[in-house]
Amino acid sequence: MGSYKNGVVGDQSGTSNGDAGGAAVDKGVDFANYFCTYAFLYHQKEMLSDRVRMDAYYNAVFKNTHHFHGKAVLDVGAGSGILAIWSAQAGARKVYAVEATSMAEHARAVVKANNLQDVVEVIEGSMEDVVLPEKVDVIISEWMGYFLLRESMFDSVICARDRWLKPTGVMYPSHATMWVAPIRTGLGDQKSNDYESSMDDWERFTDETKNYYGVDMSVLTKPFSQEQKKYYLQTSLWNNLHPHQVIGAAASIKEIDCLTASVSDILEVKSNFSSTVTLQNTRLCGYGGWFDVQFRGRKEDPAQEEVELTTAPSVNDGTHWGQQVFLLSPPARITEGDQLNGSFSMKRSKENHRLMEAEFSCEIRQQSGELVPPKLCQFDENQVLMVTFSFAVSHQRTSPSSAQASEEFLVNFSPASLSLASTPLLNTAAASGDLPVYSIENSDHATKKEIGLLHSSPGGENAIHLIPVILFLCGFVLWIFSHPTKL
Amino acid sequence: MGSYKNGVVGDQSGTSNGDAGGAAVDKGVDFANYFCTYAFLYHQKEMLSDRVRMDAYYNAVFKNTHHFHGKAVLDVGAGSGILAIWSAQAGARKVYAVEATSMAEHARAVVKANNLQDVVEVIEGSMEDVVLPEKVDVIISEWMGYFLLRESMFDSVICARDRWLKPTGVMYPSHATMWVAPIRTGLGDQKSNDYESSMDDWERFTDETKNYYGVDMSVLTKPFSQEQKKYYLQTSLWNNLHPHQVIGAAASIKEIDCLTASVSDILEVKSNFSSTVTLQNTRLCGYGGWFDVQFRGRKEDPAQEEVELTTAPSVNDGTHWGQQVFLLSPPARITEGDQLNGSFSMKRSKENHRLMEAEFSCEIRQQSGELVPPKLCQFDENQVLMVTFSFAVSHQRTSPSSAQASEEFLVNFSPASLSLASTPLLNTAAASGDLPVYSIENSDHATKKEIGLLHSSPGGENAIHLIPVILFLCGFVLWIFSHPTKL
């Protein structure tokens, strides 16, 4: 609830809207929690600066203009209107660009500046309320949240599809897949330390509150510990993983056909998966989760050229979505050939349907037959290690997050920024919150501080390299003068 | 909307509650925006660690036990229950502790752990809805937000007073005063730079979006600039000012008698004030705003010992409220004896009644008769400099702010932390958002980067100090051997 939110809470009518899987959604609350974020040009710019995202949609449209030429198109959640404009540039007869926030006004200005006002009609309103004059041939939307389903925006796309897509219509994107893979990362150590130090701090606090102010607060130690543990260790983290951090094959846990999926199909994700460890003597620090979407058209009317947008760990093609990291604390020792049999489930938070609660359980079948038991794990009788850990999926995309959360995005900053419009580190880190800092984790165990030291090279520090040279010169001079007889 | 907010949106009934000065307040929205923050023990702890705040209330209660002994007390917004417990310890017959969030449950546990469950009754509910079995002798509440009125929580105290305080009852605190004073600060330069660099970034972005993706976004340059200017330069900043940064006498702009003030008295604050500059050849960089509250009892039943809680700039007694800084950009050159005639007005934001919009205007009457005109200012014919600048008061107390905003609290961190339970820098800065980092600005013109360099001293860097020594040794050796005849 920082200052950036001032003045954009908007519709506080308090009318209830939609179902979103059981819980009634208060529109005013939803705006305060969610939509207001997208009303800022700053956030639009961050998304528009994601080259991987932009290239995928750009190619999807312009390599498949047959889907757009002379057609009616609906852009759901148009933002600044870029997809609507591309659709028009690709030859659409008419484009309806629906945007819930006041960003619609800016989209209208951009449409006009690009001289497409006769083709693109920007409509400010929520998709669920909008009435179009015709059915459309294409629905295009960039609806994907962190780990695909966060934000639950696909609900609005489904609503649009069921009401406004012709029976022969095409979805852009057409398919989506969610992935998980076992990973190693230094984030868990760091978060464990943060948790420990917050508890040390609490102990001091309760001691002092008792001694100075005569009130015993120690009864709150347990709930405080739970609150902090949930925050530090049981909340998934945004991260841009390096492919080397993935230590076993990625497993698909959900496939969505955008043409046929219903809201009930995506309310909950449940999957069993297994993965064989591909690295010798390493640590299972948790799981990474990400997604792909594909632009394939539809069976009867396929894409001329299929395009894929992947948010998998990548050295050069990171996205603002990054990956979600689900920490296992403490990590488990594993090695090549060990088999990880996992199960995953995720459902919407009861309190906020745009947030998710996820749960992993993982069974480690060690090839060696030997067990290196991490704490907090249960054993069964077949030398099988049971690890159960549950998380809340965190970090709304492009939302100004809590400052506490923003720390995560500073952790492993590297110069491998892929931002179209590159921003200086300080500015980006401070200004973007959950936004694309495109951090690539270089070193498994490196902490923020270490990386800071590795990367920092203040001018003066280079001077130390002169010391051996000077010492050598010094020695040389001494050597010359110590042999005067030879001169 | 960071992860910390998960699962505490709470009551989404959408019923409208109260007036709050014209705009109807949606309860669900208010909870999502406001109350949920106070449901975290972490935030309670931060407030309870503010020694100045704690000492003031502690002394107010225990140096005036005659107000509490055998009396009925109401604690409005009880949080973890500390004021209710002190009231009971001071001899109250009965204490009603009303708390709107689930923190009430924790308060109940603390009350029981301190064996006061027969005296303190914790009631979970909003003050406006609660029904008490009797009228009370004392209302105690820590209702003050940033710059006193932010959060608009005093409305609930007024409601409690009008419904539940006996005609002879006493308010704790009894009085409040708001202050402003001209200041110098390096924050404005820093924010100007941030703004400039965000605009440079935007230019690159629009160029590249046009060149790579064929869409001209430059029509949004003006609204983007306005958005960024509002964010960087027209939003007040949390800061813990050093008294040396205050360059003229502080002026009182609002006095509130808590026993008689009505909501309409605090809906708007308007004041003219003047201040004479007390420092030679300096810059007017803006105004600082803060508040005091006093515990004086009431005329017919005064305090035995009056206590004051001030949040004025202080070297050793900073509070988590800090001061609000209203930047003037660019600053104006002023000097000792110049007279600043200002006017101030502040009203609640239409979109969120708990946020404020403030406006300053300031006329500089220079003693010298000479004018050093800052940009953007208008002149009148009497060699008077008109400076008009308006702001939105920012930063909800103890709220997890946007990461962008949190930067402000990292700027001038010094070791002068007054936190009862001291927290390591990284942890506090990352975890607290708007919370007490107790930064004291050491250097007027030092930017974040400069301070970083001043404070950083990585081991290797010290080695450069050896270079002159080695060079000197080298020279000495050369000198010795260049005079062989004298040996």
UniProtKB/TrEMBL annotation, chains A, B:
Gene3D superfamilies: Hnrnp arginine n-methyltransferase1 (2.70.160.11), Vaccinia Virus protein VP39 (3.40.50.150). It holds the Pfam family PRMT_C. Keywords: Membrane, Methyltransferase, S-adenosyl-L-methionine, Transferase, Transmembrane, Transmembrane helix. The chain crosses the membrane at residues 463-481. It comes from the Eukaryota. Its EC number is 2.1.1.319. InterPro entries: Arg_MeTrfase, PRMT_dom, SAM-dependent_MTases_sf. One of its GO terms (molecular function) is histone methyltransferase activity. It catalyses: L-arginyl-[protein] + 2 S-adenosyl-L-methionine = N(omega),N(omega)-dimethyl-L-arginyl-[protein] + 2 S-adenosyl-L-homocysteine + 2 H(+). It is an enzyme of class 2 (transferase). GO terms for cellular component: nucleus. Residues 176-364 form the Protein arginine N-methyltransferase domain. One of its GO terms (biological process) is methylation. Ring-like homodimer. This is Protein arginine N-methyltransferase PRMT10. It comes from Malus domestica. The lineage of its organism: Eukaryota, Viridiplantae, Streptophyta, Embryophyta, Tracheophyta.
